[in-house]
Amino acid sequence: MTNRIKDGGKVLGRVKINGQKLPLLSIQHLVGFVPQEDIMHRDLTVRENLRFYAHLKADPKMSRFQRKAFVNEIIDILGLSHVQHSLIGDEENRGVSGGQRKRVNIGIELMASPLGKSIIKYNWKEDDEHF
Protein backbone atom coordinates (compact mmCIF):
# COMPACT_ATOMS: atom_id res chain seq x y z
CA MET A 1 0.00 0.00 0.00
CA THR A 2 2.88 2.37 0.58
CA ASN A 3 4.53 1.81 -2.81
CA ARG A 4 7.71 0.71 -1.04
CA ILE A 5 8.08 -2.64 -2.81
CA LYS A 6 11.72 -3.55 -3.56
CA ASP A 7 13.44 -6.32 -5.47
CA GLY A 8 10.73 -6.74 -8.13
CA GLY A 9 7.93 -7.58 -5.71
CA LYS A 10 4.28 -7.25 -6.74
CA VAL A 11 1.32 -5.72 -5.01
CA LEU A 12 -1.72 -7.97 -5.15
CA GLY A 13 -5.25 -7.42 -3.97
CA ARG A 14 -7.76 -4.60 -4.04
CA VAL A 15 -8.35 -1.55 -1.94
CA LYS A 16 -11.96 -0.46 -1.60
CA ILE A 17 -13.17 2.69 0.06
CA ASN A 18 -16.91 2.90 0.64
CA GLY A 19 -17.30 -0.06 -1.71
CA GLN A 20 -15.41 1.57 -4.60
CA LYS A 21 -12.23 0.08 -6.00
CA LEU A 22 -9.62 2.83 -6.20
CA PRO A 23 -6.01 2.81 -7.45
CA LEU A 24 -3.51 3.22 -4.63
CA LEU A 25 -2.02 6.36 -6.15
CA SER A 26 -5.40 8.10 -6.01
CA ILE A 27 -5.62 7.75 -2.23
CA GLN A 28 -1.97 8.16 -1.29
CA HIS A 29 -2.60 11.72 -0.05
CA LEU A 30 -5.37 10.44 2.25
CA VAL A 31 -3.53 7.67 4.05
CA GLY A 32 -0.49 7.55 6.26
CA PHE A 33 2.09 4.91 6.99
CA VAL A 34 3.04 4.11 10.56
CA PRO A 35 6.19 1.96 10.54
CA GLN A 36 6.28 -1.25 12.53
CA GLU A 37 9.64 -0.26 13.97
CA ASP A 38 9.62 2.82 16.20
CA ILE A 39 11.26 5.87 14.64
CA MET A 40 11.27 8.14 17.65
CA HIS A 41 14.16 9.24 19.83
CA ARG A 42 14.26 6.94 22.85
CA ASP A 43 15.99 9.48 25.09
CA LEU A 44 13.28 12.13 24.66
CA THR A 45 9.90 12.34 26.33
CA VAL A 46 6.61 11.73 24.53
CA ARG A 47 5.98 15.49 24.29
CA GLU A 48 9.54 16.25 23.13
CA ASN A 49 9.28 13.65 20.36
CA LEU A 50 5.95 15.01 19.12
CA ARG A 51 7.23 18.58 19.30
CA PHE A 52 10.36 17.61 17.36
CA TYR A 53 8.34 15.96 14.60
CA ALA A 54 5.86 18.85 14.56
CA HIS A 55 8.77 21.09 13.57
CA LEU A 56 9.83 18.62 10.88
CA LYS A 57 6.51 17.52 9.41
CA ALA A 58 3.72 19.96 10.27
CA ASP A 59 2.67 22.84 8.05
CA PRO A 60 5.60 25.28 8.02
CA LYS A 61 3.13 28.20 8.04
CA MET A 62 2.01 27.28 11.56
CA SER A 63 2.97 29.76 14.22
CA ARG A 64 4.83 28.58 17.30
CA PHE A 65 1.56 28.82 19.23
CA GLN A 66 -0.35 26.77 16.63
CA ARG A 67 2.35 24.10 16.64
CA LYS A 68 2.17 23.87 20.44
CA ALA A 69 -1.63 23.63 20.27
CA PHE A 70 -1.32 20.93 17.60
CA VAL A 71 0.99 18.85 19.81
CA ASN A 72 -1.41 19.31 22.75
CA GLU A 73 -4.34 18.11 20.62
CA ILE A 74 -2.47 15.04 19.40
CA ILE A 75 -1.46 14.16 22.97
CA ASP A 76 -5.07 14.48 24.14
CA ILE A 77 -6.60 12.61 21.21
CA LEU A 78 -4.18 9.69 21.54
CA GLY A 79 -4.65 9.44 25.31
CA LEU A 80 -1.04 10.24 26.15
CA SER A 81 -1.56 13.08 28.64
CA HIS A 82 -0.55 11.01 31.64
CA VAL A 83 2.77 9.95 30.03
CA GLN A 84 3.61 13.11 28.07
CA HIS A 85 6.61 13.85 30.30
CA SER A 86 7.85 10.25 30.41
CA LEU A 87 10.87 9.10 28.41
CA ILE A 88 10.20 6.78 25.50
CA GLY A 89 12.91 4.48 26.81
CA ASP A 90 14.58 1.43 25.31
CA GLU A 91 15.66 -2.08 26.24
CA GLU A 92 18.02 -0.78 28.95
CA ASN A 93 16.04 2.20 30.27
CA ARG A 94 12.40 1.62 31.09
CA GLY A 95 10.01 4.09 29.48
CA VAL A 96 6.46 4.12 28.20
CA SER A 97 4.67 0.90 27.26
CA GLY A 98 4.73 -0.63 23.78
CA GLY A 99 1.16 0.49 23.12
CA GLN A 100 1.98 4.04 24.15
CA ARG A 101 5.04 4.01 21.87
CA LYS A 102 2.83 2.90 18.98
CA ARG A 103 0.44 5.79 19.70
CA VAL A 104 3.39 8.21 19.65
CA ASN A 105 4.29 6.77 16.22
CA ILE A 106 0.72 7.43 15.08
CA GLY A 107 1.00 10.98 16.42
CA ILE A 108 4.21 11.49 14.46
CA GLU A 109 2.46 10.40 11.27
CA LEU A 110 -0.50 12.67 12.03
CA MET A 111 1.86 15.65 12.02
CA ALA A 112 2.11 15.43 8.22
CA SER A 113 -1.24 13.91 7.28
CA PRO A 114 -4.37 15.67 5.99
CA LEU A 115 -6.26 14.31 9.01
CA GLY A 116 -3.70 15.82 11.35
CA LYS A 117 -3.91 19.14 9.57
CA SER A 118 -7.68 19.15 10.02
CA ILE A 119 -7.29 18.64 13.77
CA ILE A 120 -5.66 22.00 14.35
CA LYS A 121 -7.80 25.09 13.99
CA TYR A 122 -5.79 27.80 12.29
CA ASN A 123 -7.97 30.57 13.67
CA TRP A 124 -7.01 30.06 17.32
CA LYS A 125 -5.73 33.22 18.91
CA GLU A 126 -2.54 33.55 20.91
CA ASP A 127 -4.57 34.49 23.99
CA ASP A 128 -6.97 31.55 23.78
CA GLU A 129 -7.84 30.64 27.36
CA HIS A 130 -7.20 26.91 26.77
CA PHE A 131 -3.50 27.37 26.02
Model description:
There is one protein chain. The protein has helices at residues 24-27, 46-57, 64-77, 98-110, 114-119; strands spanning 16-17, 20-21. A hairpin with a 2-residue loop joins strand 1 and strand 2. The chain is mostly helical and 131 residues long. Strands 1-2 form a two-stranded antiparallel ribbon. Helix 2 (46-57) packs across helix 3 (64-77) and helix 2 runs parallel beside helix 4. It has a domain at 34-119: P-loop containing nucleotide triphosphate hydrolases (Rossmann fold, 3-Layer(aba) Sandwich), CATH 3.40.50.300.
What's the SSE blueprint?
Blueprint: E1 16-17, E2 20-21, H1 24-27, H2 46-57, H3 64-77, H4 98-110, H5 114-119
Antiparallel strand pairs: 1-2
Helix pairs in contact: 2-3, 2-4
Q: What distinguishing features does this structure have?
A:
131 residues, mainly alpha, Rossmann fold, two-stranded antiparallel sheet, 37% helix, globular, disordered C terminus
